[in-house]
Amino acid sequence: MNKSELVEVAAQEAGITKAAADKALSAIIGAVVKAVSKGESVTLVGFGTFKSAPRAARTGKNPKTGATLKIPATTVPKFTAGTAFKAAVAPKKSAAKKK
């Protein structure tokens, strides 16, 4: 599913126009990006948590030449799925047997 498909589903579910759904989704994504870039975490209970995480410097290899190169330390965005999201994606076997 891409952004336009997500906007369409959100518009149908919320009973609003696609333009309004697109504006709302863009505002939410922008707010998450802005908060995470400042080092804050964004938690959506049941869905997951967006945060930034440091990545240490390391050595790598150029796959074409095999030459060793240094990869500098950086900060990367990280998403951790919430319990409800995990359960919806991969229900536990005991819960699946009850159905």
TrEMBL record:
<keyword id="KW-0238">DNA-binding</keyword>
<protein>
    <submittedName>
        <fullName>HU family DNA-binding protein</fullName>
    </submittedName>
</protein>
<keyword id="KW-0226">DNA condensation</keyword>
<dbReference type="Pfam" id="PF00216">
    <property type="entry name" value="Bac_DNA_binding"/>
</dbReference>
<dbReference type="GO" id="GO:0003677">
    <property type="term" value="F:DNA binding"/>
</dbReference>
<dbReference type="InterPro" id="IPR000119">
    <property type="entry name" value="Hist_DNA-bd"/>
</dbReference>
<dbReference type="InterPro" id="IPR020816">
    <property type="entry name" value="Histone-like_DNA-bd_CS"/>
</dbReference>
<comment type="similarity">
    <text>Belongs to the bacterial histone-like protein family.</text>
</comment>
<dbReference type="InterPro" id="IPR010992">
    <property type="entry name" value="IHF-like_DNA-bd_dom_sf"/>
</dbReference>
